[in-house]
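Translate structure to sequence.
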């Protein structure tokens, strides 16, 4: 190859490298811009999903996507939302994202409890709530010195009734391991610290049609009314020492446990998904153990009030 040809080839290579560098820089700038532009919508989507799942566990939002309230008979009926307030509706109305977030912010409030079950606010603990929620979501809030929990406030009757409403329940974040990966959900309990309002399992990678059924409304519908503190054979509950959690049995509760006190703290298993069921059982037992002091305090307060 002549010197002139070599110089030409070298020059062409230099242009190619320069073009690739410029193209890479342009792509990097575009990706960075897109990431920045999408960050807010992504955070909004995460907040919406967390809000929906807590409202489902609290039975404020039906797992099928519409709001619901209890009527005079205690039955859940469809509801319509206006200004964060729910009112009975004649038909199922599917709310907008904005309405879901508005009801969530009206009804659900996060706070912290220490190892003795004493509650404090994020403000008093000098902790940024959003950062705390993000930082410990995967490892589990139950492992922190100050543990996350949410209050469920009563549905306000009007805009004048937004302050000082009674607490109708609490939501505890639950996490554990399924068959294939981590599982995340929420457990809502009544103010007595023992009776389940509802649950949700929303982030899971279990086998479709088997373990993934933990996220299905039909399976989750077993939980309302269950007890998280296991009664003793005499029908009494020692909240300081009783086994704590909800057991997913292998088979049907009625066939496995009959009418024994353990049946009050158990749900039917899923055919072909024993290991996922075991993971759910372990998650409830492990997480709720860390909240026992708070739950005992709730029970004592409930007993004292009547």
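Result:
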């Amino acid at each position: 190859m002549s010197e002139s040809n070599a110089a030409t080839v070298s020059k062409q290579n230099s242009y190619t490298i320069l073009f690739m560098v410029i193209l890479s820089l342009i792509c990097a700038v575009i990706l960075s811009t897109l990431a920045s532009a999408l960050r807010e919508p992504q955070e909004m989507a995460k907040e919406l999903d967390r809000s929906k799942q807590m409202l489902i566990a609290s039975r404020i939002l039906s797992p099928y996507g519409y709001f619901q309230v209890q009527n005079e008979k205690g039955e859940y009926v469809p509801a319509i939302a206006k200004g964060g307030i729910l009112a009975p509706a004649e038909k199922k109305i599917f709310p907008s994202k904005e309405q879901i977030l508005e009801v969530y912010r009206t009804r659900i409030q996060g706070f912290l409890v220490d190892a003795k079950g004493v509650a404090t606010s994020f403000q008093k603990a000098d902790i940024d709530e959003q950062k705390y929620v993000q930082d410990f979501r995967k490892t589990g809030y139950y492992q922190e010195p100050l543990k996350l929990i949410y209050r469920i406030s009563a549905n306000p009757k009007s805009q004048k009734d937004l302050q000082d409403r009674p607490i109708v329940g609490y939501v505890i974040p639950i996490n554990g391991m399924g068959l294939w990966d981590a599982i995340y959900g929420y457990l809502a309990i009544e103010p007595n610290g023992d009776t389940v309002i509802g649950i949700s399992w929303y982030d899971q990678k279990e086998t479709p049609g088997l373990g993934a059924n933990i996220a299905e409304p039909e399976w989750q519908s077993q939980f309302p009314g269950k007890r998280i503190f296991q009664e003793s054979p005499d029908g009494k509950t020692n909240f300081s020492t009783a086994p704590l959690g909800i057991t997913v049995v292998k088979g049907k509760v009625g066939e496995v446990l009959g009418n024994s006190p353990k049946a009050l703290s158990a749900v039917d298993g899923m055919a072909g998904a024993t290991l996922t069921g075991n993971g759910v059982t372990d998650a409830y037992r492990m997480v709720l153990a860390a909240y026992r002091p708070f739950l005992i305090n709730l029970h004592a307060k409930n007993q004292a009030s009547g």
